[in-house]
């Protein structure tokens, strides 16, 4: 009988901490943060993570410097 009581208490403690951990993860994600598609590889990036280039006065978002350089090379060879 004592074993069942301790098992129940342990399970309740587990559920308590599991719920808190999930809330912390959800709070860490910014809700509705806008993403931009890299025109070279198609990867979606947030403004904070993006490498931003200017093309004809407009901002273009890239996942890496490598993609930015590929994009610029492609424009130069047109």
Descriptive account of the structure:
This protein has 78 residues and is of the alpha+beta class. The protein has two domains: 1-30; 35-76, Roll (Ribosomal Protein L24e, Chain: T), CATH 2.30.170. 50% of the residues lie in helices and 21% in strands. It has helices at 2-28, 65-76, and strands spanning 35-37, 44-46, 51-55, 58-62. A hairpin with a 2-residue loop joins strand 3 (51-55) and strand 4. The model has no long low-confidence stretch (mean pLDDT 81).
Set out the fold topology.
Blueprint: H1 2-28, E1 35-37, E2 44-46, E3 51-55, E4 58-62, H2 65-76
Antiparallel strand pairs: 1-2, 3-4
Main attributes of the structure:
78 residues, Ribosomal Protein L24e, Chain: T, 2 domains, single chain, two-stranded antiparallel ribbon
Short description:
This protein is of the alpha+beta class and 78 residues long. The chain is built from two helices and four strands.
Give the averaged pLDDT, no decimals. Answer: 81
The percent range for helix content is: 40-55%
- CATH architecture descriptor text of the largest domain: Roll
Q: What is the terminal separation in angstroms?
A: 80 Å
What is the number of E strands?
4
CATH fold call of the largest domain: Ribosomal Protein L24e, Chain: T
> Structurally, how many domains make up the residues?
2
Question: What amount of the residues lies in strands?
Answer: 15-25%
Give a short account of the largest sheet.
2 strands, antiparallel
Shape: rod-shaped
Could you list the spans in which at least 5 consecutive residues all have pLDDT below 50?
none
Query: Order of strands across the widest beta sheet?
Result: 1-2
CATH class type of the largest domain: Mainly Beta
Q: Secondary-structure element sequence?
A: HEEEEH
- Structural class designation: alpha+beta
Number of helices: 2
**Radius of gyration, Cα only, in angstroms?**
24 Å
């Amino acid at each position: 009988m004592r074993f069942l009581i301790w098992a129940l208490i342990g399970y309740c403690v587990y559920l308590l901490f599991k719920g808190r951990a999930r809330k912390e993860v959800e709070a860490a994600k910014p809700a509705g943060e806008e993403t931009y598609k890299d025109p070279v590889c198609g990867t979606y990036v947030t403004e904070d993570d993006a490498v931003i280039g200017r093309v004809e006065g407009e901002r273009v978002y890239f996942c890496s410097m490598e993609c930015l350089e590929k994009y610029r090379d492609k424009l130069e060879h047109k």
